[in-house]
What we know:
The protein is of the alpha+beta class. The chain has helices at 3-6, 87-91, 99-110, 121-124, 128-154, 157-185, 190-213, and strands at 15-25, 28-37, 41-45, 55-60, 63-73, 76-81. Strands 1-2-3-6-5-4 form a 6-stranded antiparallel barrel.
Amino acid sequence: MNRLQTADPRENARTNMFLGAVIREANQSIPVKVRNMSVSGALVEGAVVPEECAEVQLVRGSLALCATVAWSSSGRCGLRFSSLACVRDWLAPPTNPAQQRVDEAVRVFKLGAVPMPQRSGANAEASSGSRTVQLGEDLRRAMRLVQDLCHELSNDGEVVIRHAEKLQNMDIVQQMVAAVADALAGGPDESVVGRRLATLRASCAAALEKLAAQ
């Protein structure tokens, strides 16, 4: 029997690594970590991974490989490439054509602060109840701005690759702001809001602890 036809792709030499990448499947992009790679396949892991036999694309920066999911289990899956990979290229830092635009936006922002609108004197004389209602509305408006930013960032494959954990933290921020706004509004579901806030406080504390350990 022909040895080339029966060779297991896993027999190819594998290089251990821990690289951020994205798996594109249908209309979704899934952030993953590449744990090892050979010229014919790779082991990846993530919070969500495609199912066995799925046809996907593994993307990192300007690099992309079409692949079939050979197996999938417990947040890991094995990919079988449809063409040979250059492992050395995948180990190199990814190129990011959008970085220049990002740097320019940061530079412009640092040139001066965005002017804030002045509050009228009437707001200073508002009752405590009115202030609470206003604070809730302020938080909801801020939350919508954060939601819009998260939506835009999560649709950018490069951003997802490089900042998946930060995007998860932003999601915690969104949920926390929404829960605080609901708490300020009061109402019959205060116990539900209280439980949600308790869960979010734990998530926030865990994220901050992890950040401090970096």
